[in-house]
Write a structure and sequence with these properties.
By secondary structure, this protein is of the alpha/beta class. It is built from eleven helices and 15 strands. The chain folds into two domains: 172 residues, Stage V sporulation protein AD (Peroxisomal Thiolase, Chain A, domain 1), CATH 3.40.47.40; 153 residues, Stage V sporulation protein AD (Peroxisomal Thiolase, Chain A, domain 1). Helix 2 packs across helix 3 and helix 6 packs across helix 7.
Length: 340
C-alpha cells in the first residue's frame, strides 16, 4: 500500500532527508550576475582547461560533487548513489563524470527538470530506507547546448528575443538520512504536458503549462496555499514563460504575486547582460538552489520553498521532424526545519 502518497501525484516523506551540503560552479556570465556571491567557484574560462565544452561540463560535475563532499568531510565512498543528468545526448557529461567518481550511478533525463527529478528520487530512496547518503547533480553549458539543439556558435546566428541563455554550471546537493536541515518533506512528480508549441527558441512558453499543472496539483494534493510558502520558484521559465505561468495560475484562482519567482530570471541581470528572456538549462535551478536558496534556508531567512524545475523534452531529431515540445515539471518542498 502506498501509505506515503497523498492526492494524485504527491508523496509526503515520513523521514524527510536533510540536505547537508551543496556546491556550485558557474561560468563567467553567471558569475557576473546578481547572485555571484552565492557561488562557490566562478570560472574565467568556460572551457575550464579542457579542449571541448562537453568535457568542461563533465569536469563541472566532478568538481562540484567533490567540493560538496569536502564541506562535510565525506568521501566518495560514503555515497550510496549518485543521481544526475544533463542536456547532452546519452547524458554524456554526467556519465563521464560518474566514470571518474565511481559512485553507483542512476543517470536521469528530464531535460532542465533534472535537478528536482534527482532530488525527488534521492529523497524517496533515503526515506524508504534504501540509502543513507546520496549526491545529486544537474549541469548545463551554454555552448554545448547551442551546438546540440540550435546552431554552432561559429555560425554567428542571431538569437530571437524569445530565446533564453542556457546557464553554464553545475549544482550538487548531498542528501542524508541524518542532519539538521533543510529537509525535503514533499515530492510532487509531474506529468508530460504539451500545448503544441514547436518553436525551440521559445521554450518558456512550451514549459509554462507543465509548471502550472504541477504547482496546481501540488497545492490540491497537499492542501497548501501559495501563502504557506515563502517562495514558489520555477527552474527556467524565463521572463516570458514566467508571465504565462502567472497568468494561467491566476485564471485557476491562485494569487501568486507575492511568492512566485523563477531561477532563470534571478540568475542574470537581463538588461545589463542581455539574455533576452533570461536563463534556462539544467544548471539554472541547480545553481540558484544550491547557492542562493540553500544559504537562505540555512540562515532561516526563508523557511519553506517549493522548487519546481521544468524541462522541455525535445530532441534535435524531434525538432527536425516538426514535432511539438512536450514538457514536464517536478516539485519538491524544502523546509528549514521540521514541523510537528
Amino acid at each position: 500500500m502506498a501509505i506515503k502518497k497523498i492526492g494524485s501525484q504527491t508523496i509526503k516523506l515520513f523521514n524527510p532527508p536533510s540536505i547537508i551540503s551543496t556546491s556550485t560552479i558557474v561560468g563567467p556570465k553567471e558569475g557576473d550576475g546578481p547572485l555571484s556571491k552565492y557561488f562557490d567557484t566562478i570560472l574565467q574560462d568556460d572551457l575550464y582547461g579542457e579542449d571541448s565544452w562537453e568535457k568542461a561540463e563533465s569536469k563541472f560535475i566532478e568538481e562540484a560533487v567533490k567540493s560538496a563532499l569536502s564541506k562535510v568531510r565525506l568521501n566518495l565512498s560514503d555515497m550510496d548513489y549518485l543521481i544526475g543528468g544533463d542536456l547532452l545526448n546519452q547524458l554524456m557529461s554526467t556519465s563521464f563524470a560518474a566514470r571518474s567518481l565511481q559512485i553507483p550511478f542512476f543517470g536521469i533525463y528530464g531535460a532542465c527538470s533534472n535537478s528536482t527529478e534527482a532530488m525527488s528520487l534521492a529523497a524517496m530512496l533515503i526515506d524508504g530506507g534504501y540509502a543513507d547518503k546520496i549526491a545529486t547533480t544537474a549541469s548545463s553549458h551554454f555552448s554545448s547546448a547551442e551546438r546540440q539543439y540550435r546552431f554552432p556558435l561559429e555560425s554567428g546566428n542571431q538569437r530571437p528575443l524569445t530565446s533564453q541563455w542556457t546557464v553554464t554550471g553545475a549544482g550538487t546537493t548531498i542528501l542524508s538520512s541524518n542532519g539538521e536541515g533543510p529537509y525535503i518533506t514533499h515530492v510532487t512528480t509531474g506529468k508530460v504536458v504539451d500545448f503544441g508549441i514547436k518553436d525551440a527558441a521559445n521554450m518558456g512558453a512550451a514549459m509554462a503549462p507543465s509548471a502550472v499543472d504541477t504547482i496546481k496539483t501540488h497545492l490540491n494534493d497537499t492542501g497548501f496555499k501559495p501563502e504557506d510558502y515563502d517562495i514558489i520558484i520555477t527552474g527556467d521559465l524565463g521572463i516570458l514563460g514566467h508571465e504565462i505561468a502567472m497568468e494561467m495560475l491566476e485564471k485557476e484562482g491562485y494569487n501568486m504575486s507575492n511568492v512566485f519567482k523563477d531561477c532563470g530570471i534571478e540568475i542574470f541581470d537581463n538588461e545589463r547582460q542581455d539574455t533576452h528572456c533570461g536563463g534556462s538549462g539544467c544548471a539554472s535551478s541547480a545553481v540558484v538552489f544550491s547557492g542562493y536558496l540553500y544559504e537562505q534556508l540555512k540562515a532561516k531567512k526563508i523557511n519553506k520553498i517549493l522548487l519546481v524545475a521544468t524541462g522541455a523534452l525535445l530532441s534535435p531529431t524531434s525538432s527536425l521532424q516538426g514535432e511539438s515540445i512536450p514538457s514536464i515539471a517536478h516539485a519538491v518542498t524544502i523546509e528549514s526545519k521540521l514541523r510537528n
